[in-house]
């Protein structure tokens, strides 16, 4: 869990620095920075998505995962959690919820979050998560300066999400092959692209409801192994 703990602390630290500069940055610069971040996020998503070796699996993962996410209303629940935090802090405009949801999704759906957490759990190797901590820390500075205090609470989502993957990795070691991790990362790349479109203020995509898609490749390969074992 060391890598995940460091990652959460980096987000908190970066957010605090960003909040310090928030009042001193004119609004027109904030808007431009958000758009620049959106384009950067799109690039990161494309780089992750094109690594797939099984396009059909990615397509079916997106469809099935999105249906499951809509049924579970993940995005609505994230919005409600963000709104609850905002209400407790006296936020009446929804800015805290927006910062919390946007940052949480960005920090959680990337391939580094998956691969780093798996490495941490399987081999006690935290180097990927340490590198992600540096990137997330820098990103949280920019995000907090533009989206506000909600970004700091994304550290909680990152800690829970990556912590669960890390703790579960050791018990699922036999299924977590390189191809499985690769396809999960490719789906994550598509979700990052969708988040980039949201940041550019195109028609809003419910990225949160697509999160289950990332784990469909793992379920597929587990089912495949079980099938060939008994057939």
Helical segment count: 10
Tell me the total number of β-strands.
0
Order of helices and strands: HHHHHHHHHH
Q: Looking at the structure, what is the overall shape?
A: globular
Helix content: over 70%
Poorly predicted residue ranges: none
Largest sheet descriptor: none
The first-to-last residue Cα distance is 39 Å
Describe the protein in words.
It is a single chain. The protein is 77% helix and 0% strand. By secondary structure, the protein is mainly α. The protein has helices spanning 2-22, 27-49, 55-72, 74-88, 95-109, 111-123, 127-147, 154-169, 178-199, 216-230. The mean pLDDT is 83. Helix 5 packs antiparallel against helix 7 (127-147), helix 5 runs antiparallel to helix 9 (178-199) and helix 6 (111-123) packs across helix 8.
Summary of the model, kept short:
This protein is mostly helical.
Keywords:
231 residues; mainly alpha
Topology:
Layout: H1 2-22, H2 27-49, H3 55-72, H4 74-88, H5 95-109, H6 111-123, H7 127-147, H8 154-169, H9 178-199, H10 216-230
Helix pairs in contact: 1-7, 1-8, 2-7, 2-9, 3-9, 4-5, 5-7, 5-8, 5-9, 6-7, 6-8, 6-9, 9-10
């Amino acid at each position: 869990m060391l890598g995940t703990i460091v990652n959460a602390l980096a987000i908190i630290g970066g957010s605090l620095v960003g909040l310090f500069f928030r009042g001193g940055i004119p609004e027109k610069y904030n808007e431009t920075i958000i758009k620049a971040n959106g384009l950067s996020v799109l690039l990161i998503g494309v780089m992750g998505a094109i690594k797939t070796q099984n396009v059909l699996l990615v397509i079916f993962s997106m469809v099935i995962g999105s249906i499951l996410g809509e049924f579970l209303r993940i995005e609505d629940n994230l919005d409600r959690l963000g709104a609850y935090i905002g209400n407790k802090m006296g936020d009446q405009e929804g800015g805290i919820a927006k910062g919390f949801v946007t940052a949480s999704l960005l920090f959680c759906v990337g391939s580094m979050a998956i691969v780093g957490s798996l490495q941490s759990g399987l081999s006690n190797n935290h180097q990927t998560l340490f590198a992600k901590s540096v990137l997330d820390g820098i990103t949280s500075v920019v995000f907090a300066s533009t989206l506000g205090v909600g970004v700091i609470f994304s550290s909680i989502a990152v800690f829970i999400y990556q912590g669960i993957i890390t703790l579960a990795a050791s018990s699922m070691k036999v299924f977590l092959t390189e191809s499985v991790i690769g396809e999960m990362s490719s789906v994550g790349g598509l979700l990052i692209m969708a988040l980039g479109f949201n940041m550019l203020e195109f028609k809003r995509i419910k990225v949160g409801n697509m999160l289950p898609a990332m784990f469909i490749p793992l379920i597929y390969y587990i089912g495949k192994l079980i099938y060939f074992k008994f057939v």
